From TrEMBL:
Sorted UniProt keywords: Chemotaxis, Hydrolase, Methyltransferase, S-adenosyl-L-methionine, Transferase
GO biological process annotation, one example: methylation
Catalysed reactions, semicolon-separated: L-glutamyl-[protein] + S-adenosyl-L-methionine = [protein]-L-glutamate 5-O-methyl ester + S-adenosyl-L-homocysteine
Top enzyme category: transferase
Domain CheR-type methyltransferase residue range list: 232-496
EC number: 2.1.1.80
A matching Pfam family: PAS_10
This protein's record includes keyword Methyltransferase: yes
Entry annotated with the keyword Nucleotide-binding: no
Database matches in InterPro entries: Bact_Chemotaxis_MeTrfase (IPR050903), CheB_C (IPR035909), CheR_C (IPR022642), CheR_MeTrfase (IPR000780), CheR_N (IPR022641), CheR_N_sf (IPR036804), PAS (IPR000014), PAS-like_dom_sf (IPR035965)
Full protein name: protein-glutamate O-methyltransferase
Length: 991
């Protein structure tokens, strides 16, 4: 598809609120035939560029454009780097630079580059940093301006830049290659490009040049082979049949040029030059049929495509439409050919903003349909890559989308406006009572006959003054009585209220025959059975030798059975093959054969003519022709048997004078006799026809008045029936679509409920869901171990349910949480004292962040409580052991602070036991333990982990006097979260 050249470039200043990408100007006439290869990459792509040019041979005849996705403030060194790996000239692109083959061009990092009429154009970036998509920008211009000579290559990188560009290249019959994600340092860009399914080859970078050269050296297919393909409708019919059998869709109504260009692309990808070879490949490889089907369904779309058109729709035409609505009314929209849903959500955003601006209270219902089930599944998921930020303003992103990692998810309020369904526009019933119908960039692929059928359907589907929104290259010319053009540039039209002419009434479903096919002849009603006895065999032999040649026909002349050799009397007719006796009769036989068949079928009696002269390849022959109605058996009733019998040549008549006539006179007399006989038969046939006409005239006159009187009533009734039928078809289709949507949602809810049930069961946490009135909404099976609950208790207040807990203030805790919107946690014990639970109360928040009750969970912490009690008992046990030890013993932490000490230690050094805990070892006794040798020993214990054994230490204490001590230590390691401890045991000897 080539768009017309725009009158002006769209700028964001002119249309506030929209992110306007620069207009891509297509060429009026391509002046070169060489391929232009765009290489896009981001993080980690430098190695890919180096590898690609290292393996690229010289003199390929192609131009190469390197588009790195770099920081705009980064000073580019790409040109100098690439020069090291290729002998081709490498230059940085400048404005108005002409592209030439066997050159490498590098896009500047602070500019956005497009290709227009074989010239590079540099543009200042309009999007903020982080939202620029330079690879998409260049690939789109490359696709539109170079079409089948465009090649896009996506290398390593983060994000999704290049994804939309590869779709555009594929749509315009170019070729796309992507680096194998397993060989890419960063695989996000390659994987996002592969997800589009618009990729020809996924290869390591070192294999790309070889495949690229092979593709460039492929002989052109659109020459003689395409001409042969146009002539060979049978081969094309085979392709359509294969696709229809595989997918159920008929592409015979698509434009032939588009079909052949898509087939040509697939042939190029397989390096097949013969059309017949590709048909054979389709027969042998069903997967290729699926790939061709996807090729024919290429849908390139994005949010707010053609921003000026959407701006005009939002600012001018939609407000006029919405002002005619009343509060509570529905705004119904049909987006035909929605692909992956971007356009449907764009329309939904415009409508919602218009409704908010006009302060109206309207409901939006959008039906988005497409023939591709995979595209519909992606549209229903409503997940889009983060590169949509280049098409949607930040305000709209914040309002209508949620950022999830590197994707944007459509919010529920917008998603609920759109119903997605698989729908074939030329087969399924249309949606009706629409206020807006958008069918953009779809009609350009359909044949003119189908387009002529679709516009009456569009007129029928729209409400009075409803809007029709087409693509910029589509037109409604030829239907001025149905639509009034509002904007000729962006193809926005309004439905006229005038009645549609009778010749253009909606004819649905459409019936087309794309190829002339031979009509199957009716099979004979009788079937010849194999003979099982001698008499039947003898009869068959006798018929073969003695019965004259004959054929069994119906009154229309269609042959059902042939007996004997009839080639002397019948021959195949020229043109389309058929088995009609009137068409096959030889010269001289047609008139009499027709006359006898008619007489026999009307009078129900045999009719015969003799001495009938028939011209054959071996001269004239005279025959007897007999036509006999068949009355038995019942299977052949109504059939006629035509019998051909040879007769001798009649003798010439003698003149009155007795002398023989000459040969010329004999022939003259025979001719006159033949003409007289023919005239006689003609008179008889005419007389019979007149009598039949007179006999039927009275009947016609008697019924004529009745027919005339009923004609108008039947006509009006027929129109009403057609209208009711179409409305029923449309309503049925709409109901089926909504039902399918509900089925999909039901399946999603069922899966979600199953997941939630398994999640709650696996946690083994008792959970009770309460509403704002403390009524039970649901509970898990584990909750029955704490409360006496059954399923019938759902809807009762939690205060009415008995529990086996000692705690009786659960209702007050729930009300407190609902009032303060803060969670609360309490440890509770069962009445029997055997179990402990941690009760946690949280507000119940909906997806829209509304408080709709509370969630009460009970986690069994009996093991924790038992462990806690065990630890407390163990600590008490250890303290008692230390107290009864007669030897001085002190327990130190990792900082040499006292945790506990034995009574013997306090008594030996005259210390107060209650003041020891927490004191530093060297501060004990008002600093009396600040002993340098002791410090040296304890440092070894702390830093080197050395155990002290029977080390003697002498010290003069100011109060106690001289003491000789024997020291022993033991380092006790604990868990990871707690530091080690040091046991210090002493033996004290006085002087």
């Amino acid at each position: 598809m080539e768009n017309a050249e725009p009158d002006e470039k769209v700028t964001s200043a002119k249309y506030p609120g929209l992110l306007i990408t620069k207009e891509i100007i297509p060429p009026t006439k391509p002046n070169t035939d060489f391929q232009v290869v765009g290489l896009g990459g981001s993080a980690g792509s430098l190695e890919g560029f180096e590898t690609f040019f290292q393996h690229l041979p010289a003199n390929t005849g192609m131009a190469f454009v390197v588009v790195p996705h770099l920081d705009p403030t980064h000073k580019g060194m790409m040109t100098e780097i690439i020069k090291r790996y290729t002998s081709l000239p490498v230059v940085q692109i400048q404005d108005n630079m002409e592209v030439e083959p066997d050159h490498v061009y590098v896009v500047p990092s602070n500019k956005e580059t497009s290709l227009e009429r074989n010239l590079f154009r540099l543009h200042d970036p309009e999007h903020p940093k982080g939202q620029r998509m330079p690879i998409d920008f260049f690939f789109q211009s490359l696709a539109v301006n170079r079409r089948e000579h465009a090649i896009g290559i996506v290398l390593s990188g983060m994000g999704a830049d290049g994804t939309l560009g590869v779709k555009m290249i594929m749509e315009n019959f170019g070729m796309v290659m992507v680096q194998d994600p397993h060989t890419a340092r960063f695989d996000a860009m390659p994987r996002n490009a592969i997800k589009t399914e618009f990729v020809d080859h996924v290869l390591p970078v070192e294999n790309m040049p070889e495949k690229l050269v092979a593709y460039a050296n492929m002989p052109p297919i659109k020459g003689n082979h395409v001409v042969e393909a146009h002539k060979s409708s049978q081969m094309l019919q085979k392709i359509f049949t294969l696709i229809r059998n595989k997918t159920g869709h008929d592409f015979s109504l698509y434009k032939r040029n588009t079909i052949f260009r898509r087939i040509e692309r697939r042939m190029n990808s397989h390096q097949i030059a013969q059309f017949s070879e590709y048909v054979q490949l389709l027969h042998e490889n069903p997967q290729e049929v699926e790939m061709l089907f996807k090729e024919l369904l290429i849908g390139v779309t994005k949010f707010f495509r053609d921003p000026e058109a959407f701006y005009l729709l939002q600012e001018k035409y939609l407000p006029e439409l919405l002002k005619t609505k009343k509060d509570g009314d529905y705004v119904r929209v049909w987006v035909a050919g929605c692909s992956t849903g971007e356009e449907a959500f764009s329309i939904a955003i415009l409508l919602q903003e218009c409704i908010d601006k006009l302060n109206l209270h309207l409901k939006i219902q959008i039906f988005a349909t497409d023939i591709d089930p995979e595209a519909i599944d992606r549209a229903r998921a409503a997940y889009y890559l983060d590169n949509i930020s280049g098409d949607i303003s930040p305000e709209r992103l914040r309002r209508y989308f949620t950022k999830v990692e590197n994707h944007y998810h459509v919010k529920k309020e917008l998603r609920d406006m759109v119903v997605f369904a698989v729908h074939n526009i030329n087969r399924d019933a249309p949606f009706t009572k629409l206020d807006l119908l958008t069918c953009r960039n779809l009609l350009i692929y359909l044949s003119s006959d189908l387009q002529k059928k679709l516009f009456p359907v569009f007129h029928y589907s729209l409400n009075p003054h409803g809007l029709l929104f087409l693509g910029s290259s589509e037109t409604i010319s030829g239907f001025p009585e149905m639509f009034t053009t509002l904007d000729s540039k962006w193809k926005i039209s309004r439905r006229n209220e005038t009645a549609v002419p009778l010749a253009r009434l909606v004819e649905f479903p459409f019936n087309f025959t794309s190829f002339e096919t031979v009509k199957p002849h009716p099979e004979p009603t009788n079937h010849v059975k194999r003979e099982g006895n001698m008499s039947q065999l003898v009869q068959r032999v006798m018929l073969h030798y003695f019965a004259p040649p004959s054929v069994i026909v119906n009154p229309k002349g269609d042959i059902f059975y042939i007996h004997g050799r009839t080639g002397k009397y019948l021959e195949p007719a020229q043109g389309q093959a058929n088995l009609n006796v009137f068409d096959m009769a030889r010269e001289g036989l047609t008139f009499e054969l027709n006359n006898l068949v008619n007489r026999a079928s009307v009078l129900h009696e045999p009719a015969t003519v003799e001495n009938l002269q028939v011209k054959t390849d071996h001269g004239d022959h005279f025959i007897r022709l007999t036509v006999t109605p068949i009355k038995e058996p019942a299977q052949l009733q109504g059939m006629l048997m035509v019998v051909f019998e040879d007769m001798p040549k009649p003798k010439p008549k003698a003149k009155r004078g007795g002398k023989a006539t000459t040969e010329d006179a004999s022939q003259k007399d025979a001719r006159i006799a033949e003409l007289e006989k023919e005239l006689q038969y003609t008179k008889q046939r005419l007389q019979t026809t007149i009598e039949e006409m007179n006999s039927s005239l009275e009947e016609l006159k008697s019924t004529n008045e009745e027919l005339q009187s009923a004609n108008e009533e039947l006509q009006s009734t027929n129109e009403e029936s057609m209208t009711n039928k179409e409305e029923m078809q449309s309503l049925n289709e709409e109901l089926m679509t909504i039902n399918l949507q509900y089925q999909t949602k039901t399946e999603e809810l069922t899966n979600s409920n199953n997941d939630m049930k398994n999640l709650l069961d696996s946690t083994e946490i008792a959970t009770i869901f309460l509403d704002n009135e403390l009524n039970i909404r649901n509970f898990t099976p584990q909750a029955t171990q704490i409360f006496n609950l059954i399923r019938a208790d759902i809807g009762r207040s939690i205060t009415h349910i008995a529990s086996n807990l000692k705690y009786q203030h659960i209702a007050e805790d729930v009300r407190e949480v609902l009032d303060r919107l803060r969670s609360k946690e309490v440890h509770l014990q069962t009445v029997d004292g055997q179990q402990w639970y941690s009760m946690r109360v949280l507000p119940y928040r909906t997806a829209d962040n509304f408080i709709d009750g509370a969630v009460v969970t009970f986690t069994n912490i009996t093991t924790f409580k038992n462990l806690e009690a065990s630890v407390a008992a163990t600590s008490l046990y250890a303290a008692n052991i230390i107290d009864i030890i007669q030897q001085p013993l002190v327990v130190l932490d990792g900082q040499l602070r006292v945790e506990c000490a034995s009574n013997a230690f306090a008594q030996a050094f005259q210390l107060i036991p209650e003041q020891l805990k927490g004191q530093w070892l060297y501060h004990l006794g008002n600093g009396q333990w600040d002993i340098p040798p002791l410090k040296e020993l304890m440092n070894k214990v702390l830093l080197e982990g050395i155990e002290i054994q029977n080390e003697e230490l002498e010290h003069e204490f100011p109060v106690l006097g001289y003491r000789r001590m024997t020291l022993n230590t033991r380092r006790v390691e604990q868990t990871e979260n707690k530091p080690f401890k040091i046991l210090l045991a002493l033996e004290v000897f006085e002087k």
